[in-house]
Task: structure prediction
Amino acid sequence: MNPTDTSDRPQQRRHPGALAWGRRVLHPGADGAAARTRGPLGRLLAPPNDRHGATRAMAVMLLCGAAFMAVLSAAVPSFANGQMPLTFAIVAVLGICGLAVWWRPQGVPGWAYGLAPYPAAATVMASNLATSDASAGAQLFLLWPVLYAAMFLSGTQTALVLGTVVAGDAVVVASLLESSVAVTDTAGLATALTIACAVIFALRRRVAHLMGALERQALEDQLTGLLNRRALDAALAAALATHRRSAVPVALLTVDLDNFKTVNDRNGHAAGDTALRRVADVLRACIRAGDVLGRMGGDEFVVILADCDRDGARRVAEEIRAAVQDADAGLTVSVGVAAAPGDGADADSLSRASDAALYGAKLGGRNRVVTA
Result:
């Protein structure tokens, strides 16, 4: 819909929360990643959110495994149980893969993150089987792929990795140990790995909660719940980048409460805060889901209108001005309007044009809209 046609604007007056907008602006790939993980296979091979951390962990585990096997094979010949060629082949593969992942992390495809624990576990189990080693120390290396999954992958992916590791280890120890010992070893390993996964997921939830709180503080204005200046700057830059790529018009509204200092001086700062929250609610009701709304600070708000030309932006601004005046709060606003590309092609010039128009509205008597 073109915002210049406002006949059905009321049906579109919904606005996402500030944190949702901030995440879309600052993490633009998140929606694409979610789209790529649809379907059972997509969920199984979905890449982690922290690709950098997962890549580093993958490289460290590969290199440490290679170093461990190389050192023990050289220092303790019986370690390889007569399978020196196979052992050194495994060392070479692990070392080469570890170095490649460390030096070229951008070369790791997305699906490899979800698949990695399976060949890692298979390598450990094959080594244990080839060397006839079913000791606790040998089985302990199966903790690595499980820890990797628990740290970086989803709950479903981790459960599948855990089940695969326990089932595979059960087959290996059953072929090397007496049945009673094999059962107790497998049960002990399954219990230890499950507890480790549960602890890691509890820590991940806690960290996610703390990170969410920090993200809200970084992106939200704490008084109104709108975007703050940092997030607004990023949103305007993103909107102008879209404008440059596809020539989609962008408009910027700068909204300022009239005589706000008088409200504070006469009724106190608590009343001023209430007035700011009330105006924020009115602004939310006046914009579309595709628009961006935030508070720059003090009594100044900003609205970024994507796919909206100068005339459409002026109509939206008039609608905002009238809605605030009619809100029965004794408040009015002045609004400055600027549109790209006519009033500026970058964030600084467009903001200056909108501020200049706002200044003109103030000089003209307040409670009015002025276009740059």
In short: The first strand starts at residue 250 and ends at 257. The chain has two domains: 21-218, 225-371. The chain has 16 helices and five strands.
